[in-house]
Structure formats: structure tokens, C-alpha cells
Amino acid sequence: MQSREDIIALIHTDEWMMDILRAARSLQLPDWWVCAGFVRSKIWDTLHECKERTPLSDVDVIYFDASNISEDIEKRFEEQLKQIIPYIPWSVKNQARMHTVNNIPPYSSSMDAMSKFPETATALGLALDDQDNVRLAAPCGVDDVLQVIIRPTSYFSESKHLAAIYEKRIVQKNFKGKWHKVTVIHTM
Questions:
Q1: How far is the C-alpha of 126 from the C-alpha of 145, rounded, in Å?
Q2: Distances (CA, A) of 119 to 9, 16, 89, 114
Q3: Domain that holds residue 30
Q4: pLDDT tens for each residue of 30-57
Q5: Residue 136 in 3-state DSSP?
Q6: Of 12, 135, 160, 166, which residue is 20 to 30 A from 6 by alpha carbon distance?
Q7: Chain-centre distance of CA 166, in angstroms?
């Protein structure tokens, strides 16, 4: 696997992932993506020739809708998704409000939000068009995920506070314990 096209082809052949993408698409959310570990883990499992899928703590669905930033509606979307695929640990978040949770300036779109995720290899999103064509968002590029590198996004390397959050995530996520080929780039 060496390119964006290879990643898209990999996802397209994974029926479990395609079902999740179809479920997310059915909500008809504006600027929606299934992102983060959902994408990264599939790529790294493949590069590590894992026989089984690495378990996900959640499946992140993000969208951007500045007209309704109620957290309650996100919970309703999660319930709708659970009706479609009950065994998935869904997490739905409107990126138009997430800046308040993280105490940072507002995002302008879901892509902007992804560019400010902690790690470049996790700053990835997938969506489907109406013909089931997979779209890949990679605001930080795909080089790090393909080379199995964890490094902070430029946003998370700009301040000591965010760098500390990144370093804490490295420990919590145990990337190296799950995927032995991972190279971790530290901020401190």
C-alpha cells in the first residue's frame, strides 16, 4: 500500500467498513466523515498483516452544521445509527461545536477540524457519494499513516499545552503495543 488510491481501494473491498459508511451516509449530515481510528486502524492492520481487526473503542462520525450545535441532536444521530448497526460503538460529533470542548478557536469545516486532530496518521476521514465511491479526506496527507508514523499535527506541536495532550494520548492509545512497526515522534 503506497498511495491514497491504494487506501481507497482497500476500504472499498472491506464490506464491514462500507456498511458503516453507508449507515453514516443515511443520516444525510452536512460535511460528514467517518474518521480517525476507523481509518488508521484498517491501514495499519493491513500493513501489519493482522489476521483480525484491531478493536475500536468507538467509530467516530463527524459533521459540520453551525445551524444546530445541540449535543442532544448528536445523541439522536447515534441512536439512529444504532438502529441500523447496533453492535457498533458510534460517536457522532458536530465539529461546529467541538472547539468549545477543546477551548480553541472555531473550526470552519470538518476538514479544518480533522487538520487539528492530535496525530497526522489519525487526521483521516472517509465518506461515500451516492454511487458508493469512497472519498478520502487527509488534510495532513497520507505519508505518515502509510509509513506507520505517529507524529503530532502542526496544530498540536504549536503549544506546550497541546503537546502535553498529544504525549498523554501516545501513552493511552498504546500505538506501539498494538502495531509493532509504529515509529512515535515525540514533542518533548
A1: 14
A2: 23, 25, 22, 10
A3: 4-184
A4: 999 999 999 999 999 999 999 999 999 9
A5: strand
A6: 166
A7: 15
CA–CA dist 129, 91 (Å, integer) = 21
CA–CA separation, 33 and 100 (whole Å): 20
Helices (H), 30-188: 37-47, 71-84, 95-102, 110-115, 143-146, 160-173, 175-178
Look at the chain and report how many structural domains it folds into.
Answer: 1
Q: Containing H/E element for 7?
A: helix 4-12
Query: Is the pTM of the predicted complex or chain greater than 0.85?
Result: yes
Residue 171, C-alpha cell as written in the block: 501513552
Q: Give the CATH number, domain containing residue 101.
A: 3.30.460.10
Looking at this protein, which amino acid is placed at residue 85? Answer: I
Give residue for cell 473550526. Answer: 107
All three cell numbers of 39? 481509518
